[in-house]
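Long-time lurker. I teach an intro course on protein structure, and each term I like to show students one example going from raw sequence to a predicted 3D structure in token notation. This year I'd like something fresh instead of my usual example. Would anyone be willing to generate the tokens for the chain below so I can use it in lecture? Attribution to the forum is fine with me.
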Amino acid sequence: MQEIETTERVIDVRDIPPRHRHAIIFQLFDHLAPENSLQLIADHDPRPLRFQLEAKHGARCGWSYIERGPDVWRVRLTNLPEPPESA
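-- Reply from a regular --
Happy to contribute to a lecture. Here you go:
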């Protein structure tokens, strides 16, 4: 069996000016290949970002916490496949 090597991009948003953070994350997610992921590092719970991504991408946006503060928050965003349409 052949293993597929994947790399996960890690973005420390603490290094990005706050007014640019969400726009950059949206752009990165928009260009994320299906079933690939992106890891974010923040200094607070990025829950508002989750609501915005889910509003735009629905079930395609997988969200899982890797670390939950109090000083560092790590979140994995995954570009999930489109759910099948129900008949």
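Some talking points for your students: The first strand starts at residue 9 and ends at 12. Residues 9-79 form a domain with the Translation Initiation Factor IF3 fold (CATH 3.30.110.40).
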